[in-house]
Write a structure and sequence with these properties.
The complex is a heterodimer of chains A (114) and B (162). By secondary structure, chain A is an all-alpha fold. Chain A is 83% helix and 0% strand. The mean pLDDT of chain A is 87. Chain B has helices spanning 6-13, 37-65, 71-101, 105-113, 136-154. Classes of the chains: A mainly alpha (114), B mainly alpha (162).
Chain lengths: 114, 162
Amino acid sequence: MHAAVLRYRVMAYITGVLIIVVCFAGIPLQLVAHNTIISNQVATVHGFLYIIYVIFAYMLAQKLKMRLGPTILLLLAGTVPIMTFVVERWMMRTYIAPALAADDAAAAAQPVAR
Amino acid sequence: MEIPGSAAVDAATAEAPAVEGGPAATKGPSWLFLITPRWLAWHIFAVFAFWGMLWLGDWQFHRAISGNGLSWAYTFEWPLFAGFGAIFWTRTIRDEFRAKRGPSAAEVKAAAAAPILPEGIGTRQIERPADDADDADQASYNAYLDRLNIEVKQHKRWGGYG
């Protein structure tokens, strides 16, 4: 569970930063200076990393037994600037933190022989 | 750009399809839930998303062969996402059937028969040693764990943290 959360969060931050670079640096640069280097190259990189994001996010959603609507929202969050971070915070609060806490509580509740 | 459109986001934010099977779900054939309005809306969304992504791939392909080199990446990416969407949809419906059906008789039997610990790991070692009774420290610790265990079991879905 911890590994799945980490994989998702790493990819969320990477795709989140890249989409912000594309939208708030690349596109203005393209419109104002007609320089397409950021919008083209970074957008392509984001496109490929988004594939990895989708896979990890989907695996996490399966582990957390998330419902259909929130899962789709989670998967699409990697394509909307700033949304990625908002959804990551929301995921942590609503799904991940409770699941991890329950996991740890279940582990602690196992009778242990010393 | 690969933003699948705001309609998709609107549909996604419309929370939670009819995942809970109420008492009504137990009547009739098990697939009946698939034609409830909520599921029909999801089916339509899935079909549009699938063909939409294939169409976008086709569009990028035409841009690519007319000289836009960058479009080659998206030409392959969109069908990939369409395929992923199809897999996602199939698995969602399969999981829903499984949840409705509950564990099958064979699965219950297998779970009951399966040893909790792997072969070769003895259960003897976790039996309480005979001299446990005079170890007040350990006795109180075990009592504490039992209390915690009962407490956690009384909580709901997330063990009381939800």
